[in-house]
Amino acid sequence: MQILKHNDLIEVPWKNGGGTTRNIARGLRVGQVAWTISRADVRQDGPFSDFHGMTRILTVVSGGEMTLQAPTGSLAANMWEPVCFDGALKIQSRLKGAELTDLNLMFDPQYCRGDVTVHQTPQKRQISLPSSGLLAFHVLAGSPVLDSVSLTTGDTAFFKQAGPDLELKPDDAILEIRLTLLDQSEAIKLRIADR
């Protein structure tokens, strides 16, 4: 298990001044990005960047909620409800009240498949690792326990060798990010917080 503490994340301001991003991790395939995980603080309405060729799963993790307006219709980005869409869609975000923080998983569907699941009911069980790939867990609330290690809100834990034992108490919530590699001919290297 590798752990990235929330306090170790570095803020990068958006060019349009509408928010900040904190890079959590990325997967590199021959120097190209195959997937990324990041947190974004959204302070105002505005356009999303174009991530052509990537699939995007956005989950509001704290604060308010927002509507994602696309040419094909609108998507509701509600608290702790993952929303999946094409990264090339021309999205205009509209906040519904308060500023918010969201977590983004973006992946190239040629090389991997991504799934995001919220766990928020008391439980104690083992989570299986994908046959080829990795698991990441991002803490939403409380102090969930992974392999006997207690984490706090905003922390992220990574697993590549074996799936962890997960323990949630009544006030705990955690986001499971499952990345399954589709092409083993070129290894995808994990880089945590660009360090």
UniProtKB/TrEMBL annotation:
<dbReference type="InterPro" id="IPR014710">
    <property type="entry name" value="RmlC-like_jellyroll"/>
</dbReference>
<dbReference type="Pfam" id="PF05962">
    <property type="entry name" value="HutD"/>
</dbReference>
<dbReference type="InterPro" id="IPR011051">
    <property type="entry name" value="RmlC_Cupin_sf"/>
</dbReference>
<dbReference type="InterPro" id="IPR010282">
    <property type="entry name" value="Uncharacterised_HutD/Ves"/>
</dbReference>
<protein>
    <recommendedName>
        <fullName>HutD protein</fullName>
    </recommendedName>
</protein>
